[in-house]
Each structure stands twice: as C-alpha cells, then as structure tokens.
Design brief:
Chain lengths: 246, 246
DNA sequence: CGTAGTGTTGAGTCAAGTCAATGGTTGTGG
DNA sequence: CCACAACCATTGACTTGACTCAACACTACG
C-alpha cells in the first residue's frame, strides 16, 4: 500500500503555479509510469537521442549539461524532486543536451505519447505544463545573467539562493538551509568557475558569515544578507500562481 | 492593398518546425493586431509589468535584456523578423526581463487574450507556439554554455554563427553574410565581455580571415572555419521540422 | 564643421585560472 | 575493524585572459 504516489510531487510542482482540479490531479497520477532507482551520474537524456519518455524526479537531484569541444562542461540547470526533466524535450524530436543524476534517485518514467496526449486533451494540464516549461526558460535566462555578468562571489551566492528558494517552495528545505548534494567541481560547472576558485569563494562567504557549511549542508544565518550578496530577486522563479493562465 | 501580411513571417517561422494547414495560417493572420513603427531602444516588454499584448517583429531586430544590481547589462537573446517576443511571457503574469528594439522596427501587437484563445482552441497552432517557445529555451541553454565555458574568440564566433544560421533559415541572410545591427557594446553584453575586448577579438577574427567586416556587415569567407572557431553545432536550433509533435 | 556616438589602440591591473602538493572523508573489502 | 583507495577539498605560488583607464580616430548627421 503506497503511502504516497510517485507523481504526487509533480502534481504539487505544477499546482504551485497553475490551478488544477482534483480530477486533473488524478489524471496526472493515472499516467502510465515505471519507477526506477538509479545511481549518481546515470543519464536520463542524451544529446542527439530522440526522447521517447519523460523522467520525473521522485527523490534525488539531477542536472542538465552540455560539453564544449574542448571538453569543458557547463551545467545549465539543477532539478529537484517533483521536476519533470523532459518537458524541454518532449515536443522536440531530438535532445539538444544531456540530463544526468546528481545523486542516487528514484525516477518515474512516463511514455512520451501518454504525456503528449494528456497535455493535448486537458487544457488546464496543458497550460500547467506550458507554464512550468516557461518558468524553466526564465531560470535559464537568469543563469545567462549570472554566468555572464556577475563576479564569482555573487554567482555562487545566487545559485545557493535559487536552490534554497526552490526547495523551500516545494517544502523540501530545512528551517535555515538544506543539503547541497554537489561537489565543488559541479558547483563550478554550474556557475562557470574552476573548482579551486569555488573553494576559495565558499571560504570567503563562510568567513563573512553569509553561509555556514557542515559537510555538504548549507545554512544561511541571515537570508537578507545572502540574497543581497547574490543579487537575488526571486521574481524570475514565478512562485506565485498564474491566475489568468487557467 | 497590402503586398504582404504583417504576420506572414510569424507564420513562416512557426511553420519552419511545425506543420500548419492553410486554415491554421489564415487563423494566425486573422489575429487582431496593430502595427507600429518604433525607434531603436523602444521597450516592448518591461520587467515587472504584466504582459497584456504580444509583440511580433515584422521588420527589424530586438533583444532580451536584464540589468544586475551593479548596472551591468546582459543580453539574453536576439530576435529577428518573424519572432514573437512574448511567447515567453504570455502565459505568465509578470515579465521577468526586458525586451528592447535593437533597430528601428515595425512591430505587430496582438492582444494577449486573442493569442491565448487561439493557442487553446487550435491544437496545431498551440503545439507550434509551444515548440517555438521550447526552441527559444534551447537557445537560452546554449547561451549559458557560450558565456559560461567558452573563450572570448569562441563566444563571438558562436554568436555570429547563430545569427547567421537563424537568418538563413528564415531566408533573411545574404549569400555569405548579413547586416549585423549591433554596436560592439551590445555584442559584448550578449557574450559577457567588455566592448574593448570585443573590438580586439573582432580584429583577431578578421586578421585570421574568419570574418570580413564592412561597416556593420559581416561575411564569412569560409563557413566551415568560422563554425569551428565558434564551436558551433546547430542542432540546438532545431531547424528541421518536428514531425511527431503535430 | 561640430558634436555625439562608435571603434581602436596602448599600458597597466586584477580576478580568476593553472599547476601542484597536501590533507580530509568515505566507503569497501580483506 | 582496520587499511587502503578513490574522491574531494584546501592552500600556495605563479600565470594569464580579460578588464580598466585613457587617448585618439572615425563616421554620420544636423
């Protein structure tokens, strides 16, 4: 007897911004799916391959990634439980980037056609999926700004704030911080810095009392100050519901 | 007697990737709209404001932009004739970035509700708009990579290739190049560099015979070499049609 | 012509990168 | 339960790609 449906978090994530009725929620949970437990670094999507299914994070974290010719990796976004990692691919014929697991994770795979059909048949769900995709696009835009125009300290602070705000919106953060399941190399690839410089910058942030580190957990003693250090304004996350879209 | 409908280019842009019937095309052209001629730097969208209409570029160029706390500007994307600059906003309640004209331009403004209604009522058009939005998202992702992990020379070469490829797909490029309506400051803000360094890098690219400059026009004597210099692979532009999405 | 907006060039600086060594943590298997 | 291996984080010394500042040149346009 499942205490919790694997797609519940997806429903919660969609309902955060778009109104969904009880029957909409049921329809999402009724999507055919298989849940798999996968190891860190497992690929959910591979650049160049056609997407035939959509992975939904039930537990664990993932990231989007692209590799340049010289072998440098850029992490393009981070994904938390409840995120569907393939809304960006499901209406396109070929994946233009990779998605990998950051941690061990349980992933619910939904066949592409079933998801496309539901999006087409149900207006509210279709809008919710569209809205979620557009918000992901908004996050990509903010990352362009972060990586293009902010100094190292701001970049890292911004990333930490964003993750905190998103986890918090999903009810997945602790009181003052959260478990950050990333190495400094991964952090660097997310903000366009080398791991060495990430190490130094985190040290500075700690020294200034903006963050408190303990193993891989991050806490913010003063939310206002870290937001300021990261030039973080959460409007781009569109955490309030989109009433007029329903 | 109009020789050409203002929304024709939008139709062409959508039809590039998604199949549209003659009546779909007619339905798009029948959208209510007003065409305005506007000066460079005019705002089409302002961060923080609710989007009540969607601008479509009939002629001229535009860009998305965000300003950091320190006043630095990051250009997030460039838009060419046929692009609708508000697909990213139309289903969200508040704009999270600015859109401005790069050049003098004619813009067709479509009321938000009319566009939303058409997207909801017509499946093929809805899918086409969704696909176009997702491709814009793909371009944002590539920009994160460009600005995060490539050297100055590659960044600029990549941007020039992207614009060339997109203009070419819309039939708006010359044989070997195109008119680049950007100052070096704007170029710099698009790739995360200072105007001084853009000037030096363009000089290098010219010296190596990768580009030929004449006023604001750019030509590529050898497309293969400039692609290579920019680490440019156009898969992310999804220029081939998305057959299975229709 | 004068002026404002661009673009170019040189000289000096600095934030972040590179290279390399050391130290700490975690997990595993003998 | 310990020992080893693999991975990760930290630190120091040095380098460098891009930035800053500043002067000057070009161009378009009234």
């Amino acid at each position: 007897m499942p205490t919790k449906h694997p797609l519940d978090l997806l429903v919660r994530s969609l309902a955060l911004r778009s109104p969904l009725t009880a029957s909409d929620r049921q329809a999402i949970c009724d999507l055919p799916h298989v849940v798999q437990a996968l190891d860190p670094a497992s690929y959910l999507v591979r650049e160049g391959e056609p997407p035939y299914r959509c992975g939904v994070l039930v537990t664990g974290f993932a990231y989007r990634q692209k590799i340049t010719r010289t072998g440098a990796r850029q992490i393009i976004s981070l994904h938390i439980p409840g995120d569907a990692v393939d809304f960006q691919n499901i209406f396109l014929d070929v994946a233009d980037h990779n998605v990998q697991l950051l941690t061990r994770a349980e992933v619910a795979f939904v066949p592409r056609e079933a998801l496309q059909q539901l999006v087409r048949d149900n207006d509210r769900i279709g809008t919710a999926v569209f809205v979620k995709s557009l918000i992901e696009g908004s996050i990509f835009r903010e990352w362009v700004v972060n990586v293009g125009r902010r100094a190292a300290r701001e970049r890292i602070a911004h990333l930490l704030c964003e993750l905190g705000a998103r986890l918090d919106a999903m009810g997945l953060a602790e009181e003052y911080g959260y478990e950050l399941p990333m190495t400094q190399e991964e952090l660097g690839d997310a903000v366009g810095l080398t791991p060495v410089h990430v190490s130094r910058t985190l040290k500075d942030l700690s020294a200034d009392g903006l963050i408190v580190r303990n193993k891989r957990s991050i806490a913010f003693p003063d939310w206002r100050r870290i937001r300021e250090a990261g030039d973080f304004y959460e409007r781009y996350l569109h955490l309030a519901p989109q009433h007029s879209a329903g």
